[in-house]
Each structure stands twice: as C-alpha cells, then as structure tokens.
Amino acid sequence: MFFNSNVLAAQEVRALKCEILDNPLGIDVLNPRLSWQLFASENNVYQEGYQILVASSEEKLNHNQVDLWDSGKVASDNSIHVKYAGKPLKDKEDAYWKVKVWTNKGETQWSETAHWSMGILTYANWKSTRWIGYDHPFEWDSITTHSKLSSRYVRKEFRVDKSIKQARAYIMGLGLYELYINGAKLGNQVLAPLPTDYTKNVKYNVLDVTEELVKDNNAIGVILGNGRFFTMRQDYKPYKIKTFGYPKLAMQLVITYDDGTTEVIKTDESWKLTGDGPIRSNNEYDGEVYDARKEIRGWSSAGFNDSDWINASWVQEPGGFYEAQMTPGMTVKDSVQPKHIKTTKYGTYILDMGQNMAGWLQLKVRGQEGDSIQLKFSESLKEDGSLYRENLRDAEVTDTYILKGGGVEVWEPRFVYHGFRYVEISGYRYLPTVEDFIGKVVYDDLETTGTFECSNEIMNQVFKNAFWGIRSNYKGMPVDCPQRNERQPWLGDRTTGAYGESFVFNNHTLYAKWLDDIRYAQTEDGGIPDVAPAFWRYYGDNVTWPGTYITVANMLYHQYADTAVIKKHYPYMKKWILYMESNYLKNDLMNKDKYGDWCVPPESLELIHAKDAALKTDGELISSAFYFYLLDIMQDFAQLNGELSDVTYYADLRKRIKIAFHKKFFNESSKTYSNNTVTSNILPLAFEMVPSEDEQQVFTNMANQIEQKYNSHISTGVIGTQFLMRTLSEFGRPDLAFTLASNKTYPSWGYMAENGATTIWELWNGNTANPKMNSQNHVMLLGDLLIWYFENVAGIKSSTIQPGFKVLEMKPNFSIDLNYVKASYQSVYGKVTSNWQKRKGKLYWEITVPVNTSAKVLVPSQQIEKLKINGEKIDALNLFYKVSDEGIEITVPAGTYYIETGKLHL
C-alpha cells in the first residue's frame, strides 16, 4: 500500500555519494553519478520512486529553487549510480543536491544536503598557469644511485582588500606536496597527490582555503617532496626504471568575493623558491633527513623576508593530461603505540611496534643542538636481537632527525613511508621509553567495510593479518610491498586479490583509478605491462598478470554494480585480447607464459622457487586456461555494451580453446590434467573446461591428492590459490577448504601466524627462504581466501544476476568445523550482517538485508515444521520458499531475521 499523505519517521534516506566520492571538491565528470542509501526500522521496505533536486547554492536548494536539475518523480527502484541529467556543468561550479524517496511503505523526508564541485575541466583553463620549479640540484644535494635531493620551499604573497565569499586552491605539486596558507597546513592528506605515470596523466587536488585567508596580506607556501617524480635511482637501469625530472608546481588560487568578482593567483616566475630548508633529503626507499637547525620560521606567512630566495623558474610541464583526483588521498588512518624497547649491546635501542605496518614513526626527544637521531626500520630481528635488513635489498630505509636544541622536540617525516615492525634507534643521550614514539599508519582514506570473526582463532588471526597487509599496500595504487626497494603496482598480485580486498575496504575508487593507470600504460599495439603505472618497464606479454585489467573491472561490476568502468575500458581490454590472440595463440592454445604458478611451496625451505618439475604447472596450460576464463568475462562485458558480434566471437574462440585444451592436457586414464599438480586441475575445474561426465572424477582425484600427497596442505602458488578455496566448497568439500584455512603447519596461512607474522608473507616459507625475496608484508598469496571467508563461510555474497548486492545469495558452508561466525559487510545499499551459531545440534542465524535489496537464504534443513523466522513458522510469514536436497531456500525482502532450525543433518 502506498501512503501518499504521511511521511514515515521510521524511514530515512541519506544522499551519500556523488560519482564515487563523498562530497568531493573538484571532480571532472560532466555527468556524475549520484547514490543514496535507505534506512528503515521495519522489514520489507523497498524503493518505488525518487526525486533528485540539484541547485547551484545551498540557499537555493533549501528553498527548492532548483536551477540545475529537477529529476521529477522517477518510478524506479534504482538508488545507486543515477546519472546527473541536468544543465551542463561549468568550470569550478558548485552543485548542491538532495533526494526524496517513495517506498512501498510511504514517502521519506528530503535527505540532508550533499555537495560536489566541478574542477578545471579543460586544458585551456590551466594553460595560463605556469609550471614552476628549479631543474637543478642545489650545492648540498647529491645526484647518484642513492640521490639526496632536498625539498623545495615555494612561496607567494598577495593582498586581499575585499570580503571573501569562497576561496579554493587547485594544485598539482610533483612529486609530492604540502600546501600552507598563512602558516597553516591545508587538509589532512599526506603523500599527495596520488602517483601516476606523469607523462600520461597528472592528478590535481582541490582544497577549500576560505577560512585561512584574511582581508589583508596573505601568503601561500608549498613544500615539494620528491616522491615517484624525482626517484632515488638516478641513472640506474634507465632501461627499466622510469624517472621524470625535478619537483615542480602548478597552482591556481581562485578567490570569489562577496561582490561577485573573482581573482586568480597563479604560479609564475614571481614566486620565490629555496632548497635550503630543514628537509635535506627525502625519497621513498632511503628515508628522510630533517635538520631542525635549518627550519625557516614564518616562511609560509605574510611579511617573511624572502630576499635571499631565488625566483622560481618556468619549467617544462610533465607531459600528462591534468585530471581531478577522484579517489581519496592518503592520510594517517591509525596510530600504533610501541610494545616495548630494548637496549642492544651496541648501545642502540630496538623498538618493537608489535605489528608489521606501513607508515612512519613520530619521535619525541630532548638534546643539544646538532644531536642526530637515526631511525632504521625493518620487519624482523636476527637471533642476536639486531635488525634483519637483508630483505630490504639496497633500500636504506633510514630517517634522520638533527636537533635544534632547547627543549622537547617532536618530529615525523613528510615525504616517505616505511614498512616495518622494528626500529633501531640511535643518538639519544638518555634511555628513551615507548611513550617517546608513536607509529603512524598511512594508507588511502578508504572506509573499512568488512568484519569477520569465528570460533577458530587461527582464522581470526589470518583475517587480522590480511587486514593489516592490505592497508599497508594501498598507496594511491595497490603495491606489492611497503618495505624494500620495490613497492611496485604488480598486476598479478591483485588478479583475484582485489575481489577479496573489496570485502574489507571500500576499494571502488582506488581500483577505478588503477584501471586508468593500466589503460595509460597500454602500448599502441595493445600490450599491457606487468606493472602499472609502468614505473618499471616490464612489458613481458603474458596472460595472468595483464589479465588483471579485466578481472579488476569485473570485480568493480560484481561488487559495486559499476557499469561505467566496463563501458570506459572495454575497447582497450578488447584490444589486448586481440593482441594476445594474434601474437601468441597457436593451434588454439596460448603459448605465452612468464611467471608460471608463482611461488608454489618449494621442496626445500631455503628455496624461493620450486625446482622440482613435479611441483611446476605447465605455463601453456596456465595461460590457455586463464585466457579462456578472461574470454568468458569479456563475453559478459560485450553483452553489457551491446557488442553482440563480439559476444559471438568470444564464444567461438572459447569453444576452440576448450577443445584444444582438453585434447592436449587431459589424461583420460587417470582423469587428471597435465602433470597433475593441483593448479593444473583446479583451473579447468574452476573455469568449467572439464567435460561434465569427467568433472566429479577430476575433482575427486585432485581433492585426494591434496589430502594424501600434500597432507591436506597448500600446494599452489599465486595462480592456483586464486580459485582453490571456492572450488573446493563448490564441489562439496568445504571441510577440506576449512582444513587449509585453519592449518598451523607449513605450508599454510596459519603457519605464518604461528611463526609470528602479523601480515601476510610473500612466500609460504617466508621465514626461511633466501633473503632476496622474503617480504613479510605481501598480499598475493591470499588468493581467494577472503572471498571464501565472506561468501562461503559467512554467506555474504552478491548474486551474479543482479550484481552490487541488489540481490544477496546467503548460503554459508554450515558443515565446516566452526561453532559460530560473526560477519558484516557495508555494501553500496547498506550494511549486510550474517551471524550464525551451532548449539546443541540446532542452528541460530541472524541476518540483516539492506533496505531496497533482497536475499536468497539457504537453511540446511528439510524440517519445515521446526523452522522459525523471527519466532514464527515460515508459512505464517508469506515468504516464498522451496525445499531441495540442499535445504530450504527462502527469498526474504530487506530486514532483520532471526532464524532457528530443528536438528541439523550436515
């Protein structure tokens, strides 16, 4: 029934997002997408219609004076990604919006006002803004393989004589920047802007500075760090490592006055610059050197004497197109108090954070002028208690603070981050305590969306380790590790990993940005590198690493119902598919592979990679199976884009590959594939390449091998582990998947935890392998573990038919040896919860299905008469259900449900 006359107080709508950011300043999407969430205190509430109002000022919107867009009442249940369809939006224009929703239970109030603003939409509007800098080292700098380049300090004074209505700074500071107005730092972002291949695209940020300006003399100050723009490695492997030049700045400060006039302060040669400040060196791998004696008091305030500074020079622009940063920047997201500090026999101190993390250390110290405090970082200790740093390779990973003297000094770096648990501290004149230090956890400002807890403590610790590992490696792009001289955005680490990560963090915008990075890295003929942005030039032409371009887009569609990324990137994905086919598909098999099943557990604990051929999976099998899998995704993408001829093309190609694959790799007598590694069997099973009549026997043989040959332990590397846990569950062996997930002995995720890991290792034997490759903070070996946690154990899964959690499939593996599970996930529609407990042979299950969605819930029982939902028998609730061998499948609308069964027969 529709209640037109009453607004129900029990219902609420929140205008949450514009495009894919909350209340963003400076977006460059001409028709941004709007999303909102509904909240209700009763069950079975769904949207039937909406109305969106958009105005150019909050005052106009409050009075319903809509001058940009009134959608009118639209009959639709869609509450996400609704495209703005109003007047064309102009450069730097503000838009204020609200939404009202009609539901099956009544009409909501208008939401609270949300806001976005447009950025600088054309290159022409940047053209008069000059890039400034100083394309030379200063005399105290050192340009070598381990370059020491001081930060550049840039300033400009100006006067304001009228009352200010609004002021915004549009800034590109490369490699990294901090912006100050009248002595105050603007924003909470750190390590800004996010990294890109600066020859392809450059991100600009927009900051509101209205409150910082005064009607008098004002000053702008910018500190420029090196970041990935001026890399540490100068003239070092130029064929491999990309460098971009010296730090530079382009900025517009746009001031709108109360009288309606506008003034723009732009970077030009009148700005002043010096490198003779306290930051004497900064780079991502070697650390930061800060000399407090060189601090420049008042440098970013009006009235400062800059007569001994040089005029900034006009410098060459970086080459890439200017784009608004449409994903949150990095911030200090958390802090860690160290656990303890110990004195070494060398007179230094070892600080233990108790947690492997990525960020930096803030210190507090007293001493004399010129005293030097040195902080060396590492992930682990040697047997004698000193730092173990061999796995850092040639990264120096050391911060230095030189005291100015005269009291307590507090310092933390600006333009570096470290991956570490332990810190060796030297230079204190007294015994420091743990209270003198705080660990700052730095990563992208993304919402934590998922929680998971169960009755198995190993699984809980592995989940915690995964949480810390993922956030350690979100640095404006997904990197492989935060500690050594690498920190690269390897595609293969996230092929399936991005999917699992999406349950823990709202990584929508991060991975949408990364897809752009991959597209920009594509060669003219279609090739995609293994690392993107291509800071390392690794164009190796294989399937499993570049194919991440397609699987990540599929994740964004499946988890967030984002079709825009599919439409945007489909032509480039197709270009790569055709490139690989024309160059490497021979006799309907893909004969190009580079990495194999990377990092299988080797036969010896000291080895990095297995040398035993019996442990290695045929590269042609891997690449052919994976290409087949990617073609399946491309079929769906082509269907979404209306490219029907492409659908047929991909289907025909898949059919040919399936025939050739089976002919070459299938062993008819043993019902196994190739040399019978677990990966060689799990890929064709997961990708539906096995003939239906052989499928169960192939799976049984594989499961038997895991149990008998590998003693129910992991035997797969990066590729096989991406599909291992879900395939075991889907073919009826969730018990075996649970064993793999809960093992404590080698090789397993639990083995890492039992051996002191607080993140995820790069290698299954990361505590014993050669130091060249034993990062203790990677995520690539998680495979599909987190997906299995949420979808198979907790039962929080989006339907593939209606993605983005519009329809949930809640079918937990209740038969596994767990007593309880508590899990939640903040979907685009709202919070999903699944808390189940087995007690005295019965199941007690509490679920929450967000407003405007529904769920298909599978209860593992056939006893209809014993089933209760919210205290009532199911037939009294008017719910659709059906009984099968699996149990009772119930379709439930939005709401909270308490389910209780009779005796379970699992």
From TrEMBL:
Domain Alpha-L-rhamnosidase six-hairpin glycosidase: 448-793
Enzyme Commission number(s) from the entry: 3.2.1.40
Domain Bacterial alpha-L-rhamnosidase N-terminal intervals: 162-333
Coiled coil, from the record: none
Domain (Alpha-L-rhamnosidase concanavalin-like): residue spans on this chain: 343-443
UniProt cross-references to PANTHER family, sorted A to Z: ALPHA-RHAMNOSIDASE (EUROFUNG) (PTHR33307), ALPHA-RHAMNOSIDASE (EUROFUNG)-RELATED (PTHR33307:SF6)
Protein name (record): alpha-L-rhamnosidase
Source species of the chain: Neptunitalea lumnitzerae
